[in-house]
Task: inverse folding
């Protein structure tokens, strides 16, 4: 019996069983499976079955029945004889032709079963990822306008069944980014199946969703060895460089965010790449001379520049992207540039840019790769705005570094320009105090202060007072002038051997602080002890005549703490013990005022 007659006879029996499937589902389904197995065995036994006969028989079968089970299972599982790529394509095109317009044509589960069975059945003949990528290109070429995007997604997912393997294959095969295989990057349009995929998509004007599917299927998970990640950097740049700008524009925000911020810590990846001693020749990609080795910094630059095709980006974007320092708002600006949008249209910019200004900002210092910046993108925008008015880059850098909370960039620009117009210069002292005071008033106390109405001298005075009070609170627990309780003992004056002494109580926190600073001990922190725990602080001083003014000045000698009419402690310079003369003076004062040692 010929192969064609064999198929026809088997089909008649199969159809006869299929007509009663609605009434006897269980029995007839088993019978169909038996016939399917018999047909499969016949195909295997018959070594000279021609593809044309096979498809004629299948066409006859499929035109006379509407049983999804038959279509999804039988076709792909019977078709084991012809497992090369051309046969797979024939089978896929047959499926597309037969099922077009049927009610289950949009059934994702049905197509997934068809294609997965087909690919898995023929997988033994697809030995390498290179063959899988070729099959991908063929599917895109022949089925682009026959299948829906969802159906093609299923095809691609099963053809590129393991994205990490696919990327590893490309890295190992072509040595992308790792200097493997004699340090060459043999990107060839004729041999690289990945390029063929992009060429097919581009030639047939594929929708953006297909580029998205290809990228997402090829992207690895954010894990793996450092070497793998380094190779992926170059591999990704190579992929993205081949997507037309009009397709990038329509990629979803989620996809772009995953593409560009896939790793939790890009800094480690890019820093490692920067230190690799690679002798790779980017002859075509960078236009270098044939034997000129690429510099490590140029590698990073190539990766960045390959991502931005419509607009050049400022080195603030480039450096912060590489160091993973972009905040969520800056990521949105960057993705907008990736999509080909002008920075003018970015949301939440600190100030309104014209197109000329946006162009100037993007090219400011570009490509200053040898000058790593410590400024964020927001700080770079503020710096750019100030430098248009203040022609002193060092002064502008000093001002920007003192600003806080760059989400309020517009406020900082307005305030700084007002201060400059009121006399602020690079020689103005205490810039830190001034900007800390402004930051405290506006961002911590939430005060709506218009600093443009304040004179610079008054603002500096306020900042100095605030800063001193802050130091008092930080170091001594109290700010401002605090009066301390009095023990009621008047100042005690005494002359011994021609020297005059005075012993008196310190009655404010500021006097305690000055005493502590002068004698270099901790009495300056005793304000709380005096207010809460009944301590009284006295100071023994020698009266010395000033030669120039001929007036008596007090020179501190000993600090004395009294609590409950008892002298608790007495300390001299740097907490030294009292000498005999000092003890004698203190004892005379103690006896006179009824205190206990």
Result:
């Amino acid at each position: 019996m010929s192969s064609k007659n064999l198929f026809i006879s088997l089909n008649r029996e199969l159809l006869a069983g299929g007509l009663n499937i609605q009434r006897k589902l269980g029995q007839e389904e088993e019978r169909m499976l038996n016939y399917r197995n018999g047909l499969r065995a016949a195909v295997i036994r018959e070594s000279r079955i021609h593809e044309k006969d096979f498809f004629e028989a299948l066409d006859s079968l499929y035109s006379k029945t509407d049983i999804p089970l038959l279509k999804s299972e039988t076709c792909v599982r019977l078709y084991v004889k012809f497992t090369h790529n051309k046969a797979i394509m024939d089978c896929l095109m047959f499926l597309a032709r037969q099922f077009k317009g049927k009610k289950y044509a949009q059934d994702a589960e049905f197509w997934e079963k068809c294609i997965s069975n087909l690919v898995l059945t023929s997988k033994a003949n697809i030995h390498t990822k290179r063959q899988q990528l070729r099959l991908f290109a063929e599917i895109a070429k022949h089925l682009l306008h026959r299948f829906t995007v969802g159906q093609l997604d299923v095809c691609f997912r099963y053809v590129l069944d393991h994205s990490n393997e696919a990327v590893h294959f490309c890295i190992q095969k072509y040595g992308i980014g790792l200097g493997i295989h004699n340090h060459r990057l043999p990107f060839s349009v004729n041999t690289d199946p990945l390029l063929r995929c992009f060429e097919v998509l581009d030639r047939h004007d594929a929708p953006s969703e297909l580029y998205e599917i290809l990228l997402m299927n090829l992207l690895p998970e954010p894990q793996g060895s450092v070497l793998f990640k380094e190779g992926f950097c170059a591999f990704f740049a190579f992929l993205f460089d081949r997507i037309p700008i009009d397709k990038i524009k329509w990629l979803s925000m989620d996809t772009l965010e995953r593409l560009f911020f896939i790793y939790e810590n890009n800094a480690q990846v890019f820093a490692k790449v920067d230190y690799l001693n690679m002798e790779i020749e980017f002859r075509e990609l960078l236009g270098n001379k044939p034997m000129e080795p690429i510099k490590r910094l140029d590698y990073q630059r190539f990766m960045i520049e390959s991502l931005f095709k419509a607009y050049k980006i400022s080195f603030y974007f480039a450096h912060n992207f590489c160091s993973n320092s972009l905040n969520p708002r800056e990521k949105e600006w960057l993705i907008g540039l990736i999509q080909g949008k002008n920075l003018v249209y970015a949301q939440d910019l600190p100030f309104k840019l014209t197109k000329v200004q946006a162009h100037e900002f993007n090219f400011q210092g570009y490509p200053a790769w040898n000058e790593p910046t410590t400024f964020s993108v927001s700080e770079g925008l503020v710096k750019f705005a100030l430098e248009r008015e203040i022609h002193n880059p060092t002064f502008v850098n000093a001002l920007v570094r003192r600003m806080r909370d760059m989400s309020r960039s517009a406020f900082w620009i307005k305030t700084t320009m007002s201060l400059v117009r009121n006399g602020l210069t690079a020689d103005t002292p205490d810039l830190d105090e001034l900007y800390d005071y402004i930051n405290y008033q506006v961002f911590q106390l939430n005060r709506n202060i218009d600093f443009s109405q304040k004179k610079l001298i008054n603002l500096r005075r306020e900042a100095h007072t605030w800063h001193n009070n802050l130091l008092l609170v930080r170091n001594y627990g109290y700010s401002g002038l605090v009066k301390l309780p009095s023990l009621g003992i008047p100042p005690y004056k005494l002359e011994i051997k021609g020297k005059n002494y005075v012993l008196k109580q310190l009655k404010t926190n500021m006097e305690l602080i000055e005493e502590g600073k002068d004698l270099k001990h901790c009495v300056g922190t005793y304000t709380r002890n005096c207010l809460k725990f009944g301590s009284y602080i006295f100071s023994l001083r020698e009266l010395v005549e000033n030669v120039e003014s001929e007036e008596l000045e007090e020179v501190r000698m000993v600090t004395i703490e009294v609590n409950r009419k008892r002298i608790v402690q007495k300390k001299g310079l740097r907490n030294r013990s009292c000498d005999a003369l000092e003890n004698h003076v203190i004892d005379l004062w103690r006896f006179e005022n009824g205190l206990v040692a």
Summary: Residues 25-45 form the longest helix (21 residues). The longest strand covers residues 552-563.
